[in-house]
Write a structure and sequence with these properties.
The protein is mostly helical. It has helices at about 5-20, 30-50, 50-70, 80-100, 105-110, 120-160, 175-200, and strands at about 110-115, 115. The longest helix is centred in the C-terminal third of the chain and has 42 residues, at about 120-160. It is elongated.
């Protein structure tokens, strides 16, 4: 076996090690990796695309950033989680890359379909992605709000009528001290009156 065969053999071994076996589960990106993917797109459009594109990518990134604390617990099997991952790692970069591959003059001024330029088509796609991610963000927030409501109902049911609840007519410590002072003053006044009557 020659040196070329050795090199190709070692390269093949490395490629096999990097390529997952058929049917093996794909590694799911973490929330940090998802945000990094969007940040990479943002960095590129800031350099190479018009402001209308950069602003829309930024809007998507901000929405995903607000969702970041929930991304890791959404569950990989949920449609929402799949959509978020696909948006950040596939839909968004593919749309932007397809636009950036075109010459700027052609992309921004030449109508390609239905009277729309490639720039207009990209803006439409980014708006659709932003709306989709926004709906998912609202749904996740609603789930958290419902969990908070349910927890409040649980606490009310468990402790609302409990004997552990403080009776509303019990005096506070400050009120108790004030009443004690008043009682002491009354006792002192009574003693003085009794002494005065004795001298009389």
């Amino acid at each position: 076996m020659g040196w070329l065969d050795d090199v190709l053999g070692r390269r093949g071994d490395r490629d096999s090690a990097r390529t997952p076996a058929p049917g093996a589960p794909r590694e799911v990106p973490t929330s940090a990796e998802i945000l990094q993917a969007v940040a990479a797109v943002q960095e590129r459009v800031d350099r190479e695309a018009p402001g209308v594109v950069s602003a829309r990518v930024q809007h998507i990134g901000v929405t995903l950033e607000h969702m970041a604390p929930n991304l890791d617990r959404m569950g990989t099997a949920s449609l929402e989680a799949h959509t978020v991952v696909a948006t950040a790692t596939s839909y968004l970069p593919e749309a932007v890359n397809a636009y950036l591959r075109l010459p700027r003059g052609f992309a921004d001024r030449r109508a390609v379909t239905d009277g729309k330029t490639a720039l207009m088509l990209l803006v439409d796609q980014l708006d659709l992605l932003a709306a989709t991610v926004g709906k998912i963000s609202d749904a996740v927030a609603r789930q958290d709000a419902n969990a908070l409501i349910a927890h409040g109902m649980f606490l009310e049911e468990k402790f609302g009528g409990s004997s552990l609840a403080i009776a509303p007519d019990l005096p506070t410590p400050a009120q108790g001290q004030e009443q004690g002072h008043q009682a002491g003053d009354t006792g002192a006044t009574g003693s003085a009156d009794t002494a005065e009557e004795g001298r009389g």
